[in-house]
Amino acid sequence: MNNIPEVKLGIAAVSRDCFPMSLSASRCEAVVKAAKEKGIDIFKCPTTIENENHMMQALSELKEAGCNALVVYLGNFGPETAETLLAKYFDGPAMFVAAAEETGDNLVGGRGDAYCGVLNASYNLALRNIKAYIPEYPVGTATEVADMIAEFIPVARAVIGLRNLKVITFGPRPQDFLACNAPIKQLYNLGIEIEENSELDLYAAFNEHKDDARIPEVVADMEKELGAGNKMPGILPRLAQLEITLLDWMEQHKGSRKYVVFANKCWPSFQTQFGCVPCYVNSRLTARGIPVSCEVDIYGAVSEYIGTCISGDVVTLLDINNTVPADMYNESIKGKYDYTLKDTFMGFHCGNTASCRLTSSTMKYQLIMHRGLEPDKEPDITRGTLEGDIIPGDITFFRLQSTADANLRAYVAQGEVLPVATRSFGGIGVFAIPEMGRFYRNVLVKKNYPHHGAVAFGHYGKAIFDVMKYLGVEDVEFNRPKGMLYDGENPYAKY
Question: What is the pLDDT of residues 444-458, one digit of tens each?
Answer without folding.
Answer: 999 999 999 999 999
